[in-house]
## 1
Amino acid sequence: MKVFVTGGAGYVGSVCAEHLLDRGDEVTIFDNLSEGHRGAVDSRSTFIQGDLNDPKSISLAIATAAPDAVMHFAANALVGESMQNPYKYFHNNVYGGSNLLHAMVENGVRQIVFSSTCAIFGVPDVVPIDENTPKNPINPYGESKLMFEKILRWFHDIHGINFVSFRYFNVAGASQKLGENHRIETHLIPRVLNVPLGRSTHAEIYGTDFPTPDGTCIRDYIDVRDLAAAHLLALTVSKSDFYNLGTGGGTSVKEIIDSCRRVSNHPIPVLEKPRRAGDPPRLVAASKKAEKEIGWNPAFRNIDVIIESAWKWVVSHPNGYND
Ligand SMILES: NC(=O)c1ccc[n+]([C@@H]2O[C@H](COP(=O)([O-])OP(=O)(O)OC[C@H]3O[C@@H](n4cnc5c(N)ncnc54)[C@H](O)[C@@H]3O)[C@@H](O)[C@H]2O)c1
């Protein structure tokens, strides 16, 4: 297949592009490198440096690549930043995404896989979170992704665009070549691994009085390689739909830090801080629908194995992608 990957210089997009290339697909990566890295772009792909917010640029890129399908990873994805600068999030994630859909319509491209997020659910009353859980985002990031999901439905109804929208929970891990190197890192695992790498003196825990067994927040960690597998499967699905993707198991902040200690063989001192506003105690996915309907079955369910892959990558890339 010919697959057009927006955001393919970023963390998740680069690993998905690698999986597509490994199975022999032709891949065009479209990225403005605002957050991504040139070093994360697989040399077997065609790279176009462009911005979704420039309608001409995305239109020309889609016309040139003439893909069978699009995987849309490009977005801004920092919850805290979205609370400071909502314009950036609605502009890039909604307007930029709409430019992509318009370019697809103009060029007769009819299939898209979209990176949505568990942030569309806000603070759910019931956990595990399935696809019918009410969607009440509590920040502009989650709202922008929910808006794009609604836009997808309209483009399906009006223009016949087939979509699969994946609500990822917490992505972690690395492939052998590609890993997580966000310019501003807010994710727990890479931040904790910064301690054994010598980049931080301690890990921080926000809240130890949550109603969970050890008092710290529980999240659902999904390996980036399992996520890539889900995207490949999505290309075989004819139905347009929304799927939650996690492993269904929850891991607490303290358990993550313990796992990082085991994997890195470092004591990792911690500093306990008060809770952050809006942090739900437990966010875990019900992924039964994806398992049943697209045949997805995550291979990496052991947190030590996931963290080991992340650790190997950061140790072999002490300065990230160097750009
Ligand atoms: N990483 C996670 O834990 C997680 C969880 C849930 C959802 N997601 C979603 O998955 C997707 C990928 O996440 P990630 O962690 O790989 O993020 P990332 O920041 O590493 O990758 C996003 C890429 O998109 C590019 N980009 C952004 N705006 C662009 C634009 N206007 N034009 C062209 N390129 C643009 C960036 O340069 C970057 O390379 C995002 O849509 C994010 O919302 C990620």
## 2
Amino acid sequence: MNYSTSPKLLIKASSVWTATGESLAQAALVVEAGKIAAILNHEQCQSLLESEPEATGKLEVIDLPDCVITPGLFNLHTHLDYSQAPAIPENISLFTWMAQLVASTRPWSPLQFAQSALAGAKAAALSGTTYLVDSSYTGQTAEAIAQTGLKGLVGLELFGLDETLAERIFELWQARYQSLTSTASGALKEALQCGQVAITIAPHAPYTVSPTLWAKARDWAASQNLMLTAHLAESQAEYDWIFSQSPELDAYLAKVMPPGPKPFATLLNELTWRGSERSPTKHLEHFGLLDKNLIAAHCVELDTEDKQIFAASKASAALCRRSNERLMTGPATASEFIEAKIKFGFGSDSLASNSDLSMLKEAAAWLPQMTAEQALSLITIKAAEAVNIAEKTGSIEMGKAADLAAFPLSSDFWQNDHDQEAVARKLLECAPNASHLLVDGKFVVYQGKLLADS
Ligand SMILES: [Zn+2]
């Protein structure tokens, strides 16, 4: 089996959902040199097969009856390296959960983080995801994404509240970044070179990163022409902590933040930038940290004014409904994000706060607030727009990267004609694993199996 698409691949399916508003039943795609070379209806497909029969060896035909082909799915917020974290009881508060997560993974070796990240990347691929925005302290997820053959932006996490140490903490971050890139495996080196994977900086959240340190992260990302990713306004406690105070969050931080030269209570008292009656969003805006380069995860606690500020900044949001529900913090109201014209997509957050990494299930969780096609567009083209790569991928259009997922639906369903909304709804309702997944025209999943495993 030739898993590359040289010379030319023809993929036939019951339906092709392009994410451009145009969709075709009984259609086919031609993939050549990693790109979508043509989108064919049934007749065009037949005539191509007559002019270039498979037997000539010029064309490889993959017939996927009962499948719908979509653009590869996007997951705009996750932490793959927590994929094998011990199960933590459902429905406990965010900061109780985070303290348990930190405690349970603190003894992990780098190898355990690497294995956990790889398990997550594989689960993401099997469920049809081709592009991930991930935050990771170890950066092992960059390796996992590259080794699985997916695309992604990995934010190497940054923490530090003490303004006086910002310079030093940033230097240590740069050393971690250098170490990660200089020790990269062959797969990651290649992925970094061709831009399939990028490593950026991830200031963790407004309550764990001082504005001075965050500004260094913002400037570094801008100098590299990269977006950066962070958590924003995930909980009422975060809102209260920035706006005025939150003893709950003080207690959590005292437990998990690495010890510094001064007692933590002293450090908290010195933070002049909190307690200024600003929401987390206004806090970032006040310090010039909210701009078009930011991908902000969660955004649950944004009031109407915050949403206007957020939209004007042209920052992007990653809404994580299922994780927010499990940790009892949200969720955001998607229609308000649409009304405010905020660029956004969906994220799963990690397997430590979600039951799976299926972006179809994540999108299905937003029904019936929106149509199925709208929800599907938020894990394809809208998500690609949110991370500024919609010119290259995120929809099925000629010339775009052949990042594609094929999902099987029951043969009974295809007995009747359906409009595209019905196909999208069925797809979200069933949320099957992908039978085939291609990234830049190369198979990552073939007949339901990961090629990285073979
Ligand atoms: Zn997160």
